[in-house]
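Throughout our pipeline, every protein is held as a single compact record rather than as scattered files. Nothing more is needed to write down the fold, since each code stands for a local backbone conformation. The record that follows is passed on verbatim for readers who wish to inspect the format.
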Amino acid sequence: MAVYLDCAATTPVDPRVRTEVSRYLEEIGNPGSRTHEYGRRARAAVERARSQVAAAVNAPRGDVIFTSGATEANNLAIFGLAEHGAETGHRHIISTQIEHHAVLEPLAELSRRGFEVQLIPADSHGCIDAAEIARALRSDTLLVSVMHANNETGAVQPIDAMLAILGDRDVWIHVDAAQSYGREFSTLWNARIDLMSVSGHKIHGPAGIGALIARRRDDKRPPLKPLLYGGGHERGLRPGTLPVALIAGFGKAAELAVEEADERDRRCREFRRRLLDGLAPLHPVINGDPARSLPHIVNLSIPGVDAETAMEAWRDLVAISHGAACTSQTYTCSHVLSAMRLAEWRQEGALRLSWCHFSEMPDVSRMVQAIAGAREGATLLKTVEP
């Protein structure tokens, strides 16, 4: 079977997390039922997990609002502030051209509702200039929303520099940390990040669970309004019975990510070195800056071979993505690579390989041979830079 190298899309569930989930699937109890021991045990499991998730970003337990994942968290952060923006006359929002669609599409909807959305461009390495964010600020800016690490290229954005520039200005800051949560810690500890979206299935937890971390600033929480109504769950921001088993699994995954961070990072960096050394005969071009990227993601283009041809050649060897997994079914050009203004052949040939600390190293020599064979039988792409 092909080696799974699509961990940026979703990670395999850690066996220890699976055990935790199974335990709470077998136990009865609604955490909203406070009149008996079953409900109290369920509530205890939820609050323990809330503490575990919060600890990874050095936040108080009460700042964690459980959601179905980072997409819902992004929507809650963005739409949740809209009413406050309309009431106060703050209708200007700053974001970037390389955000996930779970941010770009809510922003597009707010634009249709009368908000002004300004998207900052990226450079050829897929990184944003923090100074451009500062220059875009206005007196009516409501929100600055910038992802921490890009899901397609792994490029880590200059969030620290952005936070330093923004300081205590009267603007809310949201960071989509779906790819970096549980992997990169120091930046996400910064209390100036008001809103942070995180996901369980990116850190070896179960799918279907994530969180919006909404920090207090000057003892005030972000003025969010719920997207749904029907109960007082999660401080009134997310109604519905809490999925105890998924939450417990997310908490365990977060705890393990913190405890094993250094060893996981070391293994991912070693995997990257061995993989790229093995692929060197193909002369791959990295789409992004390896010095400013997460250690478990590489986006590359192989001269003379389009992405579909490469994936077909590697079908029995590795399972990878053509761009981002969430949009790969459309086979359209990546908006991220387009924003980077890469040459057409690099965009058409872009492949994303992503792994984790216990990924198996594929047979790289066979990967090289398969591409060599594909080159002989396919019409070669013109690899001319603009």
Q: What stands out?
A: The two ends are 39 Å apart (CA to CA). The first helix runs from residue 15 to 26. The chain has a mean pLDDT of 94. DSSP finds twelve helices and twelve strands in the chain.
